[in-house]
Structure prediction request, 882 residues.
Amino acid sequence: MTVIQIKNVSRWYGNVVAVNDITMDIGPGVTGLLGPNGAGKSTILHMIAGFLAPSRGTLTVHPALGEPVPTWRNPDIYRNLGLVPERDSVYAFLTGEEFVRSTAKLHRLGNPGAAVSKAIAMTDMGQAADRRIATYSKGMRQRIKVAAALVHDPEILLLDEPFNGMDPRQRIHMMELLAKLGAEGRTILFSSHILEEVERLSGTIQVMVAGRLAASGDFRAIRRLMTSRPHVFNVRSSDDRTLAALLVGRPWTTAVELTAKGLQVRTSDFGAFCAQIAVLTRDHKIALRELLPTDESLESVFGYLISSQGS
Amino acid sequence: MSAYFNPTIAGLTVRATLGRRRALLFAIPAVILIALTLVLRASRPGTDALWPDRVLGDFGFSVLLPLTALIVGTGVLGAEIDDGSAIHLLATPVRRGSVVVTKFAVAAMVTAIFAAVPELVAGLLAPNSGKLAFALFVGALAGSLIYSAVFLLASVLTTRAIAFGLLYVLIWEGLLSNLVGGARILSIAHYCLGIANAVHPDANLNAGLTLATSLILGVIVTVGALILATRRLSAFAIQGEPA
Amino acid sequence: MPADLSVPSTGGPSVIHDLGYRRYDGPRLGRAQIIRALAWHSFRAAFGLGRGAKAKIVPLVALVALCLPAAISAFAMSRGNARLVDYDTYTPALRDLVMTVFVAVQAPELVSRDLRSRVLPLYFARPINTIDYPLAKYLAFTGACLVMIEGPLLLLYGGSIANVHGGSAVWAQTRALIPGLLVGLMWAVVLAAISLFLASATGRRAFATGAVAIFLLLTFTLSEILLQVEGQNQGPQAAAVNGGPPPPGATVHVQQLVYVPSLAEKISGLFSPFTLFDGVRMWLGGTDMADGVYNPGGFGAVYALVLVVLTALCLYGLAARYRKARLS
Prediction:
């Protein structure tokens, strides 16, 4: 089910192309928008949030009830959409609670007090809510912005680099919150250039490099698709050298390296390797002690995508 | 599209405009106006004194009113756009027209309090100037409305609104429009003088426009500015680095 | 491009070059160069150079507005008229207003921007003394104001000497120009101090512009009003210009009426930098103005003193503002 549909969207500033013909569909759950700085993540987020017009293409929001609507020049989308901008700017003279409360009133909520308390409790800002925002640390400002974005219980939540300035404990708390919201069926889209955050939190990732969409989907699935790059496994067994000789004989092995810590095997056919390694070791009476895919991480996927785009 | 006054926005705007030291910036000129009136009244109590015209006209009407309106009018929305907190206001289903109208109302009210009311008070304190005081008060009220609308529009169009506004007030209204007769129809100060002159005709006002002209032009400019500002605000885009 | 590996390098042992981080051990420029670099950068910023097009509009309009009288005068002189404006007063109303706009809009460009973007720690984490920063800014802005004021004067001068003939006429123009340039210097030095001091109070440019504009305009209007009001109550007082009665048989000199301002009038001119400028100018022998500040005579020394004290206070305030290298 598509909640946000982005079709052939481009955005340029004079000669600089910030977003280059991007098409993606974003559904419920947590989606991570990943990319290095300058990739166009903020630009896409601002366009989805209706704060920037695409130079070409359309961005539409499909609410659960009602017609799909374009995001530009359409303040009604904010009934279902909450935005947490990256820029560190809030009304510094208000207290946290006043800020969330004014946002609630601007959304014309029926019972602002209850919504405000709930939002503040969700972001764990209860103790600091009575202090002026000018006295907050950066992480606290992020959290109060999230509280304001959640106060009207939106179906869609957009966050631009939400973990900036948060200490590890706050980060974990925020991740748990976003995961919970995503599990409730909301559509959470957040941008980040920190792989660890995206890896831990999102089910789906959209990788943007230099304004283009480099890959989308589950990152493990993307890894499978990168067939030109061999998978790397660390293997430890009772007889490494024999196993190495056996593996070299197989057609799906591209390289085997004997190291002090075991074997490092590169294979071009993930499926064949997984299916046959156990059979191989059993038939030759080698005990398989450790089998570890080493570059399954998002980091390797990301690095590959970046380098392939750059070359 | 309903555009009505939004109390939440009004409250935020009032707090932002008059918070901390900013109220001083507006209060000091008003206090000086009244203090000057009192001093001159004490030293020159004669009823044929000519100084009320100078004080109320040159000081109050030609300097205090436009400058206060400039700082307040460009600040009500401009400050939030400038530091980026406008996005929290706009990421809500609030009608853009409502934002513009509410901020306009706050700007006009603050300007009226800090420029038009002191003008009236000074005028009443000055000897034999009751009628003039009232006329200028009405003119200043009109000025609060018209100036606020125009400067609000300017702050939506550009981040350097106060610089261009200062050019307009000092160079255009201060110098040029007085030199070239026909240029008066493009000068907000002259709209206000025309209105003031209609309340109580006074040759010293040098009002060049009739009441009808002033009113019509004033209304056109005010309403036009608010409409344009709403349209521009509807297309509010976050400028900045593609990242 | 790697070297062709198939050909062995001739002579010398193989070596791996150290391409890592290097310290700079060469000569380092001194304090004067730092101040000069910062001043030059700020001078350019005062005219909007190095920023977008919109930043140049106000300085450009102001400069053109100030040059217009000079251009018109040159044009008129080419038709045979005398010079339309003087060097030392120029066009008072225009210059007052245009310079007010210029310093109100551009002083925040120099100081408020740095406060807002919190780059002061970046400046002061370098070998720069805390006094150097305001000093450089002040020198830069004084220079910018000088360009704004002396530029039109030089244009006027050029237009005038192009239209007069003979060495003595040129010399007369030059002699009239020098006091004008000195008056311009006074303007630049004082206005730069006041506007930078006021603008350095806040990081929001709009606020700073408002503060400078309000200060200059209110004081100016205040002084003007007081002068006009005081002036209405005094008739011109006759004072003999040539002392003593005329000798018998000589042509009777018409006694000229010289306006002697009262004490209240003299004090009225103290409230605004612009009237202070006029007072000092006349005290030092400049031409009297048709309206406005009246020649304060010996009282002009007080004008000069007030001006000096005002400038000193502003400069002290400006330096004190940056004594601690705070974030904002």
The radius of gyration of chain B is 19 Å. Residues 76 and 103 of chain B are 6 Å apart (CA to CA). Chain B has a mean pLDDT of 87.
